[in-house]
């Protein structure tokens, strides 16, 4: 089971001990990995449809809360958060997915508690929510760039844990994934963006400024992973130097999450024979 | 060019003259159609990424409006609106797509003008918006079920035309598609939902009530198509008895729309040499 390899054990975290170019839990090469992703995609797709179906039927009975999934993607620039959304999340029906890319907070967002914009983007019943960056930015860039007082940031770890427990309490599973790249891979990917005119739009000179603080960011990640690595919402570190493995690993984690929820085709209170009779006898053309 | 076959010519509309099981503009069979869809998907995917890139760069320069696409899907129950979202829209990066399924209006929505909820769902710069049902419900079910006074409905056709012209003025192309099924196909598909326990959740006894009014709905569609078939936002009728053709035809229409917009990789004001130097010389690891 891949999650045994990727789940962060409780206690202090040293990212230096986590490989960025390994393929833990998968024996094959790139071609085999891509084939495996297609297979996992089929299963994911069916599981997602069942979850969606559950949510739709629950709608009718006006239950207030219901089951959903929240995939939180974090990682340094170029670690492939967008790639995972495209290649892994893209495997399931887009009708059941809500993707939110959290950018630099707006003026309005800054006027609220840091979880305000996060709560607004939570997935509803039967849906898979995907956060490309998240509330963790408020203890990552906020810590490195000192965007808030130390005691405010200190408090945020606890607030995040309470928030995630509350999300779980409403029926939404939280799957937290850090995409872990090496600084060498980041450099290669930034250079590629400079080399290719069709990638220029992705290049932001500010990314190099952040890169200067690589060590500070790694440390901020270590603290965040340690402080918010709860039983109910544990962290996973996915080696992300190989794009194919990264996509496959997140797909497998998502599949595992959905399998644990075991969504089933909802039982509908339906008199099948009566409905069939109506269809046969009340034909608008006859 | 497939749109020449599918675009509704100006003037009165008689849906009886439009085949539901034909494959206009495509010579192949089902297998060839599926292969063609994959090819079109590759092109769609690249066009969508360019559009998205344009939108992202425009973000930075704080342009207020920008280019986007709005795909409006209408059709009777079981005509395959959801299938098109899954199989055609699902071919492009889900990060660039905003899908809205318009259900029966809520109390809050009913307290507003019928276009209120529609405006809120319009796609932003660089994005493809998809409406699974739309403002057209307000002249379709509203007309058949007399949910508004006749003069109110009468006025809505003009309001829709003004609204769509306004949307186009803001840079968003409007692609309107009616998925056209026969009542026999609908019956088959409803029976299939009854036969399969994994489809029961999709079955709504109310669909049979609406089916009784097949003729009224066809007439309401004919009026809507005629009255809102403007030069800037024309209607297309896609034969939808064959799912593979339906998916392919909408993909081809969407590709054509994007090709006409001709999105290009944005020119970014970037000193490539300077950025490369910074990356080489300011390595956080050296």
UniProtKB/TrEMBL annotation, chains A, B:
Transmembrane segments: none annotated. PANTHER family: POLYPHOSPHATE:AMP PHOSPHOTRANSFERASE (PTHR34383:SF3), POLYPHOSPHATE:AMP PHOSPHOTRANSFERASE-RELATED (PTHR34383). GO terms for biological process: polyphosphate metabolic process. It comes from Nocardioides marinus. It comes from the Bacteria. This is PPK2 family polyphosphate:nucleotide phosphotransferase. The lineage of its organism: Bacteria, Bacillati, Actinomycetota, Actinomycetes, Propionibacteriales. Keywords: Kinase, Transferase. It holds the Pfam family PPK2. Coiled coil: none annotated. Residues 31-261 form the Polyphosphate kinase-2-related domain. InterPro entries: P-loop_NTPase, Polyphosphate_phosphotransfera, PPK2-rel_1, PPK2-related. GO terms for molecular function: polyphosphate kinase activity.
